[in-house]
Every structure is written in C-alpha cells, then in structure tokens.
Design brief:
The structure is a homodimer of 705-residue chains. With 705 residues, chain A is an all-alpha fold. Chain A has 24 helices and 2 strands. Chain A has one domain. In chain A, helix 13 runs antiparallel to helix 14. The model of chain A has no long low-confidence stretch (mean pLDDT 90).
C-alpha cells in the first residue's frame, strides 16, 4: 500500500520533469532569434557550452567509475564476514552502493542536459518578454528539481523492494543497513561533483577574470576570451551538478538513516517502516504547486516569485505531512530505541522543526548576504577605507552569520530528540530537505539565467536582452545564497542523522565526553575541517594557475585572437580546467574517504564518534561563515557598482573587487565542500559500522596489552 | 615541609625579579647617552610612554574595580547556600577571587613599570654594544617573568594556608573549591588585559599607521605623529600586560584545577595535595639557569640565544620534575576519582606530555610564520599575483597550521588521561606552563626591544643604534609568534583541566554526546567562538576609527605640527585609545562572563559541559589559525621588504602590506582573546558549579512538567 503511494509519487515526479523538459524544448531558438545569423551564433556558443559540460561530466565519470569499482570491492571485502553472518551484507551493500551512485549520476546528467539546453532558450525567450525568459529558466531548473527527487525516491524504493524480495525472512534492520549503501553511492558522486566541480568552477572563473578582464582588458563574457566557455560551463558544473549531487546525497542519506534507526521499532509494519520515504514524497506535489503558482512579469516580481514558490511549498508541505504522519504511524505511543512513549505527533514535530529551521536559515543567509540589509552594506562602506578593512569586515560578517544558524540547529536537535530520540534527528533532516524539488529548481534556475546572459552578450543580442537576463540573473544570485545556507543546514542534520544511525549500529548506549578517545576524536575532527578547508582553497589556486597559463598561451600563440578574426580554442581550456580540478580533488577526497575507516580501525568506534561530531561542529561554522563572507563580498561589490560609495572606478570599488575574488573559493569551493566532508565521513562510518564495531581499535588494544 | 619548599621558591622568584630589576636600573640614561640633550630627549619620550602606560592601567583598574566588586557580590550571593552547607563557600570564594585579581594586577603592574623603564635603557645600552642591549632587554623581560611566577605561587600558597587555618577540620576539597576563586580572579584581570589590551594595541597601531604613514606621509615612529606614543604604549599593553595576565590566569587556573581534582584522593597527604603547586615552582630555577646561560654578541646569535634559553629550561624542568614527582607522590599505586592504579610515573608522564607538546606547538608556530620556511615564503610568492591571492594563501596557511597542534593536544589528552585520569589533564597543562618564567621573559623582551627602536628613532640616536635595536626587535617578533602558540596550547589544556574539575564538582560520571542538550551545547559553544571573534574584530575597527579621527583632528588644528615646531597632544591619543578599548570590550566581556552562568541556570549542567567543549574545540582552531595567518602575513611582508619578489614599492609589496593589516586584529586581538573565552568560561563554570548543580536547568525542568 505505502509502496504504491511512493511509487506513484516517484513516477509523478519523473512525469513532471518530463513535462517541464518538453516546455523547455518547445522554445525554438530559430524562431526566437532576430535573424538566422543570430540563431546560428547562439546555437554555436550553446553547443560549445554543452559540449564542455559533457566533456567535464564524461571525464569525471571515468575517474568516478574507477573509484566506484575499487570502493565497491572495499565495501564487499571489509563488511562481509561470512563466518559470522548468514547474509552476505558486504556483497549486497556494494550493489546498493553502485545503484545509488548510478542513480545520482543519472539525475545529474539529466539536470545538466536540460540546463545547457535551457540557457540558450532562456536567452531567446527573454527577447519576447521578461516573463517568458523567467518561465523558461524556471522550467529548465524544474527538470533538475523533479528529475532528481523522482529518481531518488524510486531508487531507494526499488532497492528496498529488491532486497526485501531477495533476503526474504531477514530482519528489517539488516535490509535497511544494506540500503544505506545506496546513500553512500549518492554521496560518493557528490564528492566528485561538489569538490571537483567546486574547484572547476572557480578555477575557470578566476582564470577567465584574471587574464581576460585584468591582463587583456576585455569585458566579461567576451567571446575572444579562451576561458569564457569554461567559465560558463563552470556555472553549471557548480550550481547544477554540484548542488544536485550534494542534495541527492542528503536526501538519500537522511532517509536511509531514518529507516535504519526505525527498522527495529517498526519491524513488521511496512507503512511505518517506509514512512521516511513516504513523507519525502510529499515535497513533490508541494513543490509542483508552488512553482506553478507564481509568475514574474516585472523586474520587481522576479525575486518575489522565487521566494513565494519556496514559502508556498513549505506551507503546503507542513500541512500535508501532518496528515500523512497521522495516517502512517501507529496511533498509540511506541518505543524507538531507548526512547519510550514516542507519539506520531512528536515525530511530526521533529519533522516540522527541521522544515522551519531550514527556512529560517535560508532567510538569515539572505539577510547577511543581500545588500538590501545592514550587514553587507557595512562591508560595502568599509571598502572606503581600503581593501584591508573590506576583508576584515567581510570575515567578521561571516563569523557573525554563523551564530544564529548554529543556535537553530541546536534547537532543532533538542526538539527532535526530545520528541522522538535519534529517529527525530533523521526526521528533522528529512523535514529540512522536504522542499528539495522547489529548492533545486530555484538553484538550477541561477546558472541557466547566468548562462543566458553570457549567451546574449557573446551572440550580440543587444543591450535590451542583456538587461533582462541581468534581472533574471540577479534574483538567482540571492536565491543561490539561500540555497547554500539550506544545503549546509541540511548537511549538518543529515550528518547528525547518519551519526545517530552509526551509533545505533555500533550498539553504543552512550558516548562519553570524559573518555579521552572521544575528546581526542573531537579535536581531530576539528583538525580535519581545517585541513580540508586549507586543501580546497589551495586547490583552487593551483587549478586557476593552470588555467591562467593556458589562456596566456592562447593569447600569445593564436594570431588574430585579440582582433576577433581567429577563434579561441575553448575546448582546450575546458579540458585543462577539467583535468586540474579532478587532479586537485584527489588528496582532499582520499582524506575524507579513508580517515573514518582508518581512525575506526586503529582507535575504535568511540574515537570515530568523537571525530564525526568534532568535524560537524567545526564544519558548520566554517561552511556558513565562508559561504556568507563570500556572498557578502560579492554583493557589496555589486552594491558599489550600482553607484553606492562612489561607484565603479573608485578605490572603494577596487577594494570590493579584491574582496569578491577572495570570496570566490570561500563560497563556491571550500564552504560547500565541507558539506561533503561531514556527510560522507558519517555515511562511511555507518556503512563500515559492522567492520569498526567488530575489528576496530586495534592500536588501542595493542597499547593496552 | 612542602609548604616551605613552595614558599622558598616563591620568595626566590621575587628575589630574582628584584635582582633583574636592579640590573635594569643600574643602566644610566644620562651616562649612556651621547649628549645631555639626547638624554633629555630620551627621558622625555620614555616618560610619555610610561605615563601613557600608567594612564591605561589606572583607567583599566577603575573599570576593573567595579567589575571585581560586582562580581564578588555575585559569587558571594550565588554560591553561598547557608541552608545546606556549614561553610560560607560564597564568602570565602569571593575573598579568594579578590586576592587572585589583586595579585594578577600587581604582577602586571610590576611588569609594565619595568618594561617602560627598560625600553629607554635598552636603547642606550645598544649604543655601547648589541650584547649590552640584548642583556638589558632580557633583564627587563625577566622582571615580568619571575615577578609573575613568584606572585602566582605565593598568592596561591598564601590563600591555601589562610583557608586551611580558618576552615580547620574542613575537607580538603572544600578548601580547594574555594581556592579556585583565586584562579577566577586572575582570569578576570586577563579578560581586561587581553581583550581590552588587544583592542587598544591594534587601534593605536592602525590609527598611527593609517593617518601617519598613509595620509600624512611621515615614517613609522615619527614624533610628529600624535598616535606614536599610544602605539608604543600599545606594544607594552598587548605583549607585557596582556600576555602576562593571560599566562598568570593559566597557571593559577590549571594549578587550582589539579588541586580540586586531587583533593579527594590526597586528603590528609599535604605533600601530594600541594604537588601541583610544588611542581610549578621548578620552572623558576630552570628558567633562571636558562636565562643566565646564554648571551648574544652578534646578530646571528640573538635569535638562537632566545631559543636556547627555552630549550635548556625545558630540559632542566623535565629532569628535575621527575625527581620531585617521585618524592612527593605516593610510591604505591593510588586511586584518583574513578581511576585506579595511578602511579607517580604515570602522573609524571602526563606532566611531560604537556611540557613536550607545548614546546612542539611553539616550534610549529615558528615553522608556519617565519619566512625562513616554505609556508610563509609561499604566501610571499602569492603576493605577486595580487592582494586576493595573498589573502587566500594566508588564510589557507592559518587553517593548515592548526592541524598538527590540534592533533598534539589530542595526543596529550589521551596520554594524560590514560595515565592519570582527569588529574592528568591538569598536570599536562601545568607541564605546558612549566617554563612560563622564561617564556614570559622572552615575550616581554619583545616590546622592550621594539620600544627601544622607537625611542632611538624619535630621539634621533642615529642609524647605527637603530640597526642594533632592529636586530633585537626582529628576534623578538619570531619568539612572540612562538609565545602565542604556546599561550593558546596551554589555554586549551587549562580549559580542559578546569572542565575536568567542573565535571568532578558537578558529580557527573559521564557526559553523553547522545544527550541532545550536550549536543546543543557543543553547537552553541561553536556559535560563541564565532560571535566572540566577530565582536573583537569589529571592536578593533571601531576603536581604530576613534583614533583616526583624533589624529586627523590634531593635524588639522595644531599649527606647526607637521613642520615639527609644535608638539602633538600624545596624551589625548592615549586617552582616546584607552576609552575606546575599554568601551569596546564591554560586550564581548559580558558575553563571556554571563553565558556559562545563564546556560547552566536555564539548561543545566550537561548543556554547560557541552558548551565548554564546543567552544574549546572551535576556539583552538580559530585562535591558532588566526595567530598564524597574522604572523605569516607580517613576515611575508618583511620577507618582501628584505628584497624578495621585487622588494618594496612593487605590487607584491602593496599586496603584502594589505595582508599584514588584515592580520593585525587576527593575531593580536581576536586570536589571543579566544584564550580568555575558553578559560574564563571554564573557570566560571567551575566556581559556579555548586550553583549550577543545585539550581541549574530551570527551563528544562519547566518544559518537562
């Protein structure tokens, strides 16, 4: 019964994605362009971006395939213990892992295809009217939003039903344990998409800006710049593929965590067992209604429409989920792990606390990063006294902006656990991710609108069109900042949920802070956050350097490039950025993947628990402050460019430009990459919990003997 | 017996301070100067600095007096519970609190008097030879080093003996509990000296630089700059008074924590009971020998001499403390709290782990911040591509530099606890602070040498003398960075020791990470670190602004100032910086003092425990990364100024100057202030433990009903 419901929603989500995709495809570039020449130019550039994006994806998939193959073997080998269990957990987990990874890849691929088809169509739609442009960009984003939700739900349901069939008669918690491999698969793809993609996007951006704008003195999005296509590809790689894989991971992981924790309590009650998956599905109709309900006809309405979509979807979700919870969960108080007397209302409250605090974190992000409010205006003003004060105030703003979100997460934890124990945390994470379809739609809208602007510029569509795409783009920037806050908050709760599931799996009744190994774990977790941040920041620098050299080489060696008579070798730049980003993500990636396994194996499950929490607490404040410092620097610069504090060309503007450049790796690479750090380490700990529990702590045991 | 030993060492330390002070006084400015006019000029400027320093101190004392009075009442009122205890704990604690505060003030006062007498004498000694200058500066620093150690030891011993006498027949742990008020007193002074002083020193520095160097175009240390005296005063306020009060607090707090934890185990065994105090005393002879053993005749020898002093003292301390431990502690295994089978050797190992890791953290700090090594050279190189890359690489260096110190602290915790339980952590903190006399000597040497350079410049003593003082100053800069690393490491262990004592006092057997209140506490602790950092960074900005306005006003309204015919109103600048710094420290100060009491009262002892650890884990990485980013930017600039990457006047140099300015509040205000955050919150929790334990968690209880 509940399976059919989930199946129905999953298929409906895919249908919605298909519908939105058709609406995007229905816009004809040839008909929308002012002349066949313009259409040809547009198609040519759009093809270059699409080819570049596909080149990145396929190169990434090649590396990813090796990683998935090796890691599937590791999972099969380390978790499987034929001597003691009758189920080949390792084997099944590694299959679930591969399915999770492939599903995430598929979702990302669909999103990227549509985004790179939607950008040029948004540009031509904008010629007709602002409203048309808005609708096309939103439709393109919605393909990602609904395609991903649908695939995530169907993937998990399919995996569960297959396992349930094959492992007939097994305990529900064994099945759920194996299912968490699915989450690990999704998260592994996120490692490549978020970290590798984050390095790619900023290397391309910095490379294009530094040589193009500063050295060669040509404007942004100028087709003579060899890195311009890579830069546009980067927007998609970062905000479509990266964000998508990140949130796919969060949804899969938090749902798996909830089902692992609930498996023992709800065995034999399929409707309660699959409740976490079912409630996730409600985001699909809520988001659908939200997106269709608002249009934007004028400049003022664009940002409002995006925000209203999110608000309406949140409210609908809050209402619908109450009834579903009452319907699926037992009506009498039940026991969850060590918690007795949990009620369906309590579980709903836990869910709601996540949903609400996710919305508030998004709103706070906007408050701190938009130049409509005090904080970013203060950063803009501080640029008047020079670069140093701009940097100091921007950093201080970032630290400050992390305070209330941390408190909100703390409050959510207290509410969730007091209502429903560990299960409550997982539910609060699912709640925060409830509106993922609309959130992702808005997020993917950003690079589509941004690319549309680039296309309008490169294809010389005229200042009118460029102005319209700029309006669409500006609204996307603000909502992108909100999306980041939301991604971090949900990553924190997801990591906590996975941590809870890990603890449940390791049969730990308590994790004592007075145990020196736990305390040491906390400190090592903090150290990991630092090491990871430092690595990713330097990675951007090194990858950007490779780009800069290539762009310089082309300007030097291609005759007629500056004059516009010869064409730049765009593909070469795309290739360099792709290679550099995948090379540079290797070290941080390996650190994230193997540290939990090593620490657990050498020092035991307690230290690993401490490590997860230490990394979480520090990564939350690092990630939020980095994202918001970066967002604020960006908008402070835009505020000055709009005429404040003297406008362009002043010393204040120069200072703000430096701040914006510092903020780039902060907000688009290091900050978001920390989401992956905490989630991936937590799910690896969960999947390898049987190994750590049985074989962990070898060094400690040796020392004690 | 053990009391006489401690008394003897304490008095010997004061005698050593007096001896060093006599040696400083024996240098005659009149005889050392090249002419009576030069002597007059020197004396006049030195007097201005001394008067400025005293003006700051007395203004600070006034505010401090109010704070001490109010807080003594709070302590007396909240801790005292006549209904349930026969001892008026609150009353005695508040007396111990006042004694601790007054002792710390006295130590700081002595240090400041000597430092501001030593600067001018170092300048005239430098005329004779580099060696003479070095010796005079070291002697001046040693007055602080030994005066502070002696007063700390005697203060704690005196308090203990008085309490032991008055409260005859009481349990040792009641006495030790009351004694921890002494530590709180010391730490409260540190709040004002470190946070207020940190804001003062950077406000004066930035104010002097921005208007003087940049706007008016006059060189550093030019007497026409109205802020020049305030800038020189600031060096003393930050590195003598601030660092001194910080370390006084650490010594007093870690010793109190050790004695509180050991009180139950060692009751009736005074030698074991006072062992923590006795072992601290060994640093006095070790440091004395270390300081006298090395001289510096040439430029190359200066830095080596400073480092060798520290190494020799560390080695001597390690050897002597082994024998004292064997002598004072029981020879058969004993029980400490929940730990059985603790041996004297185990306690020694805990002590040693702190001593060694303190040395290693200092060394790592040097590795990351000195331009003799790769990391800072990379920051210097990154300046070639502009300010943004300089900032990004500097921040990444800071994050990176926090990794190994965190691991070292984690290793120390594991060794200490596995050897001697909670007591071991306190002992490791005492170990790290073992060489405090020599560490403080080297630290206070820095501003004395720096001031000597300023005096040589302002009194026109000639380029030769200035070159010698520059050599002395440069060595001081490197050791100052080491001192910062050491201060942070010891603050972390001290805070952990206090946390252990707090947990012991609250009778908590375990602190469960799975308890949502503990988890919420961790997150709130992280938020506090962020809030505190943001506040202190903005405070510097605001205080500097007040300074800038005053300096501009003087240049505008005093005729003949730029021409050198009229004199600037130095005292006015000193006054403005003093007022602004004390005003700006109010908010962060109140937050630090009242948050633990409020959280404990409203949410209970578990959440407070989580909060202390959350703040600790995040503050360690924030403090280390801020201090090292700042130190590295400073030295990268110096490296470029020495001719690398094109030297002065290049774009690289300009970028490095911006980095250095960003680093100023990082390394001298926000970073060191975090030491106070974690220690002060921990000792407040310890002192208010009876209140929190008995009356805490009112809100939680209300919610549950």
């Amino acid at each position: 019964m509940v399976e059919s419901l989930i199946l129905g929603f999953g298929l409906a989500s895919l249908a919605a994605a298909w519908l939105f995709s058709m609406r995007v495809q229905s816009v004809s570039v040839e008909k929308g362009a002012s002349s066949p020449e313009e259409a040809e130019r547009l198609n040519k550039i759009a093809k270059a971006i699409r080819d570049g994006a596909m080149a990145f994806l396929f190169r990434e998939y090649k590396t990813l395939a090796i990683f998935i193959f090796v890691f599937a073997l590791v999972i099969g080998f380390l978790i499987d213990d034929p001597a003691t269990t009758e189920v080949r957990e390792g084997l099944y987990s590694s299959v679930a892992f591969v399915v999770g990874a492939v599903t995430s890849i598929l979702a990302g691929f669909i999103g990227m295809r549509t985004a790179t088809a939607g950008n040029v169509r948004t540009a031509v739609s904008a010629r007709e009217s602002l409203e048309k442009g808005f609708v096309t960009a939103i439709n393109a984003g919605a393909v990602m939003g609904f395609g991903l939700s649908g695939l995530a739900v169907l993937g998990m349901l399919g995996c569960y039903m297959a396992l349930d069939n094959v492992l007939k008669g097994q305990e529900a918690h064994t099945i759920m344990e194996i299912l968490s491999g699915f989450g690990l698969g999704g998260s592994s793809v996120a490692l490549f998409a978020r970290v590798g993609g984050g390095i790619y996007t900023k290397a391309a951006d910095v490379g294009a800006d530094l040589v193009g704008k500063v050295e060669a003195g040509i404007p942004e999005d100028d087709p003579r710049n060899p890195a311009v296509i890579a830069d546009n590809v980067g927007d998609n790689v970062g905000d479509v593929a990266g964000m998508g894989a990140d949130l796919f991971g969060s949804v899969a992981e938090s749902t798996c965590a909830a089902m692992v924790i609930g498996a023992i309590a709800f065995k034999g009650q399929p409707s309660a067992l699959l409740y976490p998956l079912a409630i996730s599905c409600l985001g699909i109709p809520s988001s659908f209604i939200g997106i269709l309900a608002f249009k934007a006809k004028t400049e003022e309405q664009v940002q409002g429409a995006l925000k209203n979509m999110l608000i309406l979807a949140t409210v609908l979700m809050a209402i619908m989920s109450y009834f579903l919870t009452m319907y699926l969960l037992p009506t009498t108080p039940f026991t969850l792990g060590t918690r007795t007397g949990v009620t369906a209302q309590g579980v709903y409250l836990a869910f709601l606390s996540g949903l609400v605090s996710g919305y508030l974190i998004g709103w706070l992000t906007e408050y701190f990063t938009s130049h409509a409010y005090g904080p970013t205006r203060e950063v803009a003003k501080s640029s008047e006294t020079g670069t140093a004060t701009n940097i100091i105030y921007g950093l201080a703003l970032g630290y400050n902006s992390a305070v209330i979100p941390s408190l909100l997460i703390a409050a959510t934890v207290v509410i969730a656990v007091s209502q429903a124990g560990m299960y409550g945390i997982a539910l609060s994470a699912i709640g925060m991710l409830g509106t993922i379809s609309v959130a992702l739609t808005i997020d993917a809208y950003g690079p589509v609108a941004d690319n549309a602007g680039g296309l309008a510029e490169m294809a010389h569509m005229g200042a009118d069109i460029r102005k319209r795409t700029d309006i669409l783009d500006a609204a996307g920037n603000t909502t992108a900042a909100m999306g980041k806050g939301f991604a971090i908050g949900s990553a924190a709760l997801t990591a906590l949920a996975l941590f809870s599931a890990y603890v449940t799996q390791c049969q730990m009744d308590s994790i004592d802070l007075l145990n020196p190994w736990v305390m040491a774990g906390l400190l090592v977790g903090g150290a990991l956050t630092c090491a990871f941040s430092a690595m990713t920041m330097r990675s951007v620098g090194l990858a950007a350097l490779a780009m800069i050299e290539e762009v310089r080489r082309q300007f030097r060696s291609i005759p007629g490039l500056m004059e516009g008579t010869a064409e730049a070798e765009y593909a070469k730049c795309v290739d360099i950025a792709t290679q550099a980003s995948l090379r540079e993500m290797l070290r941080p990636g390996l650190m994230v993947v193997f540290t939990p396994i090593l620490i657990g194996w050498l020092f035991g499950q307690e230290m690993l628990a401490g490590l997860l929490i230490g990394a979480l607490v520090t990564a939350v404040i690092f990630a939020i402050s980095m994202a918001n410092s970066g967002g604020s620097w960006d908008n402070a610069k835009k505020y000055i460019e709009s005429g404040a504090h003297g406008g362009r060309g002043t010393e204040a503007h120069k200072a703000a430009v430096v701040g914006d450049t510092v903020g780039d790796p902060f907000k688009d690479t290091s900050g978001p990459a920390l989401n992956i750090l905490i989630k991936l380490m937590a799910i690896i700990s969960l999947v390898f919990a049987p190994f750590v529990h049985n074989m962990g702590g070898v060094l400690v045991k040796m020392l004690q003997h």
